[in-house]
Amino acid sequence: MRILLDGQFFAEGDSLQAMADVAEVPVSRFAFHPDDQRARKRSEIQAAFAEACRRDVGEGGFYEVLGAVLSDQTKRAALTAHLARLSTIRRQVEAVTTKDPSETERQLQSVAW
């Protein structure tokens, strides 16, 4: 990630503290580039969403589970509700990831995983 010192590009790295130690200045003068922060947060959110989907489907694999579900009327209704829930989560995640990183973090607490 790009690291800024007093708002100006300083170096590439993953640790503000490491850069502060190298430059011998307070860490408070460093920040990650906002675009990089958003990209990292978006990637973390997408990974969490994918994990939530995998956890919900389980070990059977999506198409195996889908075939079993669609053959049963009650399970079909449950799948429809589940897909609606996943769609809602996706919309919430998409809405949150377009905002400021600190706001994103706060709003992610409200997403119903």
Mean model confidence by pLDDT: 77
Number of strands: 3
The order of strands across the largest sheet is 2-1-3
Tell me the β content: 5-15%
Number of helices: 5
What is the string of SSEs from the N terminus onward?
A: EEHEHHHH
Distance from first to last alpha carbon: 28 Å
Number of domains: 2
Q: Which structural class fits the helix and strand makeup?
A: mainly alpha
Main sheet? 3 strands, antiparallel
**Gyration radius, rounded:** 20 Å
Query: How much helix is in the residues?
Result: 55-70%
What can you tell me about this protein's structure?
The protein has 113 residues and is mostly helical. It has 2 domains: 1-32, no CATH class; 35-113, no CATH class. It has 5 helices and 3 strands; from the N terminus they run ββαβαααα. The chain has helices at 16-23, 34-57, 62-70, 73-97, 101-108, and strands at 2-5, 8-12, 30-32. It has a 3-stranded antiparallel beta sheet with strand order 2-1-3. A hairpin with a 2-residue loop joins strand 1 (2-5) and strand 2 (8-12). Helix 2 (34-57) packs antiparallel against helix 4 and helix 3 packs across helix 4. The protein is elongated, with a radius of gyration of 20 Å. The two termini are 28 Å apart. The mean pLDDT is 77.
